Amino acid sequence: MTASETRPLTATRSFPSDFLWGAATAAYQIEGAAAEDGRTPSIWDTFSHTPGKVFEGHTGDVAVDHYHRFREDVGIMSDLGLNAYRFSVSWSRVQPTGRGPAVQKGLDFYRSLVDELLAAGIEPALTLYHWDLPQELEDAGGWPERATAERFAEYAGIVADALGDRVTRWTTLNEPWCSAFLGYGSGVHAPGRTDPVASLRAAHHLNLGHGLAVQALRAALPADRQLSVSLNLHELRPLTPSAEDLDAVRRIDAVGNRIWLGPMLEGAYPEDLFRDTARLTDWSFVKDGDAATAHQPLDLLAINYYTPTLVSHVPEGTEKPQDDGHGNSEHSPWPGADSVAFHRAPGERTAMGWPVDATALYDLLTRVSDAYPQLPLVISENGAAYDDVVSPDGSVNDPERAAYVHAHLEAVHRAIGDGVDVRGYFLWSLLDNFEWAYGYAKRFGAVHVDYDTLERTPKSSARWYAKVARSGELQAPDGA
Prior knowledge:
Elements: E1 13-14, E2 20-24, H1 27-30, H2 43-48, H3 66-79, E3 84-88, H4 91-94, H5 104-119, E4 123-129, H6 135-139, H7 146-163, E5 169-174, H8 176-182, H9 196-220, E6 226-231, E7 236-238, H10 243-266, H11 271-276, H12 290-294, E8 301-304, E9 309-313, E10 340-343, H13 359-371, E11 377-382, H14 399-417, E12 422-428, E13 447-449, E14 456-458, H15 460-471, E15 473-474
Parallel strand pairs: 2-3, 2-12, 3-4, 4-5, 5-6, 6-8, 7-9, 8-11, 11-12
Antiparallel strand pairs: 1-15, 9-10, 13-14
Helix pairs in contact: 3-5, 7-9, 8-9, 9-10, 13-14, 14-15
């Protein structure tokens, strides 16, 4: 049974009056202005300009030019009735070398953006790091090096000093799993390295950097500021109920979920992660006190969810499906899990090939809430890519996206009704944009962007979402 089948589609259901209705973006995906006002290359500038790394050589040099059009984009958010907007800060726009003083023109952009949001009655939700490490820090070793965690804390302090008087919601890292394991393991994301030991080192230093950044933020921000981290937790399902397939779930849970939840929320790494990866490393890069540093009090846990993960056991060294939805590579982003195969469930899929299953979001929310009952949750990303078509009259009708979001909001509402403390929902994404290694080939936006003219056109799903956001009631999309 899907989430949309758990209650009649014609029923309306109310969300809490203080629920956040937002949309999300990331700096490199939308800003453009890649070399303006002191900004220097990030790892994604370098990666996208490397032949063969990104679909048809697409880059974020212009993206959707949000740097120059942010006032227009905030106006669109206001028209859609959003009361919150999640964005990320470009580290290399603020601190081009990843160390030293800030570039004030870079900070001024974010000051202006935040002021525009507040004037429109939209709460800014700031993410410090969404995958765009300054290239100079990567040249010095990147996230596999401990110094990068220390630089990240310094950068966090700079942004807090500049924006702490007007931004209430702060997130340290977005999806550190992708930064570590797609960036340094499988190589399908920047910086494109394929070293399993480096990926584990990167994971640890991302944990450490998170903790150091929280400390820096607490020192610089007013006491009422809300701090979080955004994790793409994998909702795992075994292909069969066999003991072997259940162990496959355990292995991926260790390197996909508990590698973050352990240090950040419990102050320790899971012992089975160490056992699973013992052939690769002795983890001597973890110093005494590191896990305690990563374990800083948080006000929220932000969760990104798109699709469940289906796994099974296979004997090591045998041919196996590797359809994990994270791009094609001869190198695995799952160190210590060579005996695990990935499968895609049958049924409806998005343009990314990802199965649509909102019940997994409900299961994820309830599981996390049961494990950490005192920690409120927020959905910091959820959405879908579809092959949108512009009609002759210029409109974009995307009923599949509206149905996807409706089903997942039903799952959120059901979780709230069952006692899970979910504070908000951020749709991914506000705008069609640069979709990482897929370039401009995949569209997640509620707002269509013509990449030639940069004209913005809200899709039918955006108009439906606006009704939900304004009313606080989940209504069935038109035609459902």
